[in-house]
Predict the structure.
Amino acid sequence: MKARTYITGILSFFFLQCTVWNAFAQDGLIKEAETAYTQEDYNKAIELYEETLESNGASAEIYYNLGNAYYKANRIAPAILNYERALLLDPGDGDIRFNLQMAREKTVDKIEPLGEFFLVKWIHSLQNRGSADSWAMLGIVSFLLLIFCLLLFFFSRWIRMKKVGFYLGIVCLVVVVVANVFAKSQKDEITDHAYGIVFSPTVTVKSSPDASGTDLFILHEGTRAFIKSSLGNWKEIELEDGNVGWLPGKDIEII
């Protein structure tokens, strides 16, 4: 029994040491990347940020910094891709949105989105003020407050407190529903990978998933498109202006 406890303690110690070492290593990579960025060695910064993402997983902050490095290196398509990935993880960050808009202004294709009903636009704007995690946390807190309001309504001896519990409970219930719907929607955007960025300098969009298909229009690098479906090495895309067509999968990078 003592031997098992001793071995468990050793393993726990080594696990803790590895965790601490990984944290220091990641911090070292980030600092080295920041130094390279300030010294205008953008290619080195890109390499280090990419290495950080590969070893430690997705991070809105690292995607944002990587997007900045690509932007400074005048590689607009990768810059937009990483800003978009950062925005998926932290949709309420104004700096990410601003830099993404700056990068989009350098693209060739100026696509006017179809008109959107003002209420739908307002709901999307509200949803994008928080991430999936923040909406989920708000839903949990609101649910706990809802339980408190129910207890207040059913067990309070004072009519005024019962009214407070009733009306506040209704508000909490609405917030719980809205927060959970927004959290699921944000989570789906992260996991569905429904959008992509054109990476080729130019690509001809076809009417069918075949090189012999009719030429419909030409897209340039940095353009964002909704990926409707895939067939072999081809992807069917839809632009914000409603245009639809097929292009080779190698010419578009999934967000």
